[in-house]
Amino acid sequence: MLPGIKTKILFVVLAAICVCGCSNSKHLPAGESLFKGSKVHINDNEASKKERKVLKTDLVGVVRPKPNTKTLGVRLKLSLYNLAGDTKKKKGIRRWIRNKVGEPPVLASSMHINNSKELMVNLLQNRGFFNATASAKMETNKKKKSIAVFEITTGPQYTINKVYFNKDSTLISKKIDSTFSETMLKPGSPYNLDLIKAERTRIDRGLKELGYFFFKADYILVIVDSSIGDHKVNMYVKLKRKEIPEEAYSVYTINDIYIYANYKIHGKSADTTKEKADTIDNYHIIDNKHVFKPSVLANAMIFEKGDRYSMDDQNISLSRLVNMGVFKFVKNRFDPINDSFMDVYYYLTPYPKKSIRFEIGALTQNDDRAGTEGSISWRNRNTFKGAEELLFKINGGFEAQYSGPVKQPNIYNFGAETDLSFPRFVIPFIDIQTNSRYLPRSIIKLKYSFESESTLLRINSYTASYGYDWKEGPHKEHQFYPFNFTYVKTDTLGTSDILNLLYANLIFDGIIIGPTYEFTYNSQNGPQRTHSFYFDGLVDLAGNVLGAAEHADYKTNPKTLLGSRYAEYVKLQPDFRYYLRFTDATSIASRIMAGVGIPYGNSDELPNIKQFWAGGNSDLRGFPSRLVGPGTFNEYSIYHTNNYIETLGDMKLEFNLELRQKVYKFINAAVFYDMGNIWLYNNNPAFPGGTFSSDFYKEFAADVGFGLRFDFKILILRLDLGMPVRDPWLPENDRWVLNKIDFSSADWRKNNLIFNIAIGYPF
User: Fold this and answer.
1) I need a labelling partner for 714 at 20 to 30 A (CA). Which of 381, 459, 668, 701 fits?
2) Which tops the pLDDT comparison, 8 or 644?
């Protein structure tokens, strides 16, 4: 809820900024004008329409200086700079706003228009427009605002006619010629300087794979002949013979490989301890304190004695050592011993073997609940001297409701967990070796959790899992757990003061046993892109083989395992996200998340810990936490009570859209829209209207809102204010509630504005 007085203050501040933004030019020194930016006009049609659009963006990008930054179309930083005014005080809020938050005006006089014009012509020539011309002028209006206008004539773009490689008698020249069919310089393609640079890099990398360790891309020269006419060029690729040293012509083979497993960066030179090496499979391991098993380091290596040098093998070996997770620093050195062989040295600086970590934090839910949580964990990074990681963790916390019309029970939780992971595939009777730059991990997990919801119920959960986690590249990751065993025991303790609370849908007593597989693709890893994608798909199976063997049926033939009923279901959960980056400051994030759980055989619904929920600070942010749905069900609308602790479903569909805008160094703003719901797979009389049907698309809840994100690097604090715009439990023609929005009503704000505090982005 947003109090009226704060709303008025906010409007006053925004109005002041807007008024100041309209008069930014009034604060300029005499005779100066505000530089608003640049416009580029391309006056001929030699380039295609699509290419002209790209050229305009790139040409504006070379203009310096950049105009004052805008936030949602307003020069907010400049407005704050002017609003703070000049002050002689060295400290104070005005000085902080002016110098830290604000941004001084970019003056037109600081813009050297002829330099920008020359940069534009240079860019066009690098793209093949050799005859490009440009003219420029500065236009200033009566409001003392200036814009640089550039008139561009590109002329025809030159294309590649033929590409020749000037081969000589050397072996390295013959090697280059043998791969020249893979050249990036294709006849008919436009001339592009960046493409020439990429071709030099391609040749260099190819030679590195063939053992030419000392060769460099700078030793390649590309001569361009534009005199052949018809706006075409011939290209001649040749070696700079006079600049290439003798060693660059040599193919190098790996001789001895030395691995310093406990290297101290500021300690004594490691070269003095060669004679103390343990040799295994031709690898010389120097580890005087025997911190690591020699075999685990040897297995991480791709290089072997007698191999021809390869840059890929070098990078993969380094990556595998880094991904073992036990070394703080990893570096290597190649030392030629003659014109054909080189020794290789790897220097590995381990992390401290054991560490302890404390974490404590606060949490809030958007239904007036708040609490705290904390954990302590102990880690051993090299448990059995084979880079195995052992983790012990204890955590606990509580949630209590501090206000709100519906009283929920206080929640207390405690947990203990043990994880042991191995940097390899551990499969009985099978030895799997990989050459991937990402070492696989085999993981054993044991976990206990306890949750008490006041004097209402207590849940004890015991879990054991064994599985594998591996990456096939920087963007793709797999998690496969062939064995998962969970036993859940729930005790109900209802007392007279809370007997009206409904919690039967939260009770599950029994066993969940079965495999899970999860695949994740994330294109955001690496350099920033205009378009980025994220996909996570989960397959979760339980009791399928056992139920089929025993012909289990929860109605007529229920079956047990170890004296407890076991769950039987198939669950699929795809999550797709798309990120569109307009500029460094503005982007759109979107998500489509679906969940399908099909209980059958020994189960009539999914166990509650496997079910879906809707509403919350990373879900439908305009609705109370975990109380949306299922379907058109709404407790208050049907029963005029508020007794459900939370509502769950076997199926879910959700859409999210968020416009993100950078406001200040660590402050980002967002406008969002959420839509979705949950449903039951089988009919449950306790939730009328909650079963999935062909009318599911008419039963979506929807909300809109605004938020702020404070990016402190170590964490992101997120504040979101949401409100519902579609209530699925209302009559079908009345579900959109836009006409009921009334910010002036205290009752409406109290019942509809939902404030969320969370850590991290919602998606």
Assistant:
1) 381
2) 644
Domain 502-763 indexed as CATH 2.40.160.50? yes
Give the amino acid at 434: T
Name the CA dihedral angle for 451, 676, 639, 407, rounded to a multiple of 10 degrees. Answer: 40
Q: Is the peptide bond before 558 cis (omega within 30 degrees of 0)?
A: no
DSSP character string of 323-368: HTS-EEEEEEEEEESSSSEEEEEEEEEEPPSEEEEEEEEEEEETTT
Query: Which long-range contacts link 613-616 to residues 24+ away (Cβ below 8 Å)?
Result: 613/646, 613/647, 613/648, 613/649, 613/678, 614/649, 614/652, 614/654, 614/676, 614/677, 614/678, 614/701, 615/366, 615/701, 616/365, 616/366, 616/756
Residue written as tokens 């793709």? 476
* Residue 391 to residue 382: CA distance in whole angstroms: 11
Q: What span, in angstroms and rounded, lies between the C-alpha atoms of 751 and 739?
A: 15
Question: 658-696 burial by CB neighbour count: b if 16+ within 10 A, else e?
Answer: bbbbbbbeeebbbebbbbbbbbbbeebeebebbbbeeee
Render pLDDT for 619-639 as a digit per residue (tens, 0 to 9). 999 998 889 999 999 988 888
Q: Which backbone phi and psi does 670 adopt, to 5 degrees? A: -150, 145
Both tokens assigned to 502? 């409904």
How many separate helices (H) and strands (E) can be counted in the chain?
12, 30
CATH H superfamily, domain 159-249: membrane protein fhac (3.10.20.310)
Q: Which helix (H) or strand (E) holds 449?
A: strand 441-453
pTM of the model: 0.82
Counting every residue written for the chain, the total comes to: 763
Q: Which helix (H) or strand (E) holds 761?
A: none
Query: Domain spanning 253-350: which superfamily?
Result: membrane protein fhac (3.10.20.310)
What is the amino acid identity at position 265? I
CA angle 92–98–101, rounded 5-degree value: 100
Q: Where are the beta strands (DSSP E) in 566-623?
A: 569-581, 586-599
Give 511-564 pLDDT, tens digit per residue: 999 999 999 999 987 778 889 999 999 999 999 999 999 999 999 999 999 989
Closest CA to 528 of 471, 590, 592, 582: 582
Q: How far apart are the first and last CA of the chain?
A: 25
Q: CB of 586 within 8 A of CB of 537?
A: no
pLDDT for 5 beyond 60:
no
pLDDT of residue 8: 42
| Cα–Cα distance, 434 to 368 (Å, whole number) | 51
DSSP notation for 233-246: EEEEEEE-GGG--G
DSSP H or E stretch at residue 584: none
443: nearest Cα among 513, 352, 516, 375? 516
Q: Concatenated DSSP letters for 691-750?
A: B--TTGGG--EEEEEEEEEEE-SS-EEEEEEEEEEE-TTS-GGG-B-GGG--TT-HHHHH
Report strand pairing: 457-471 vs 145-153.
Answer: unpaired
SS3 label, residue 36 = strand
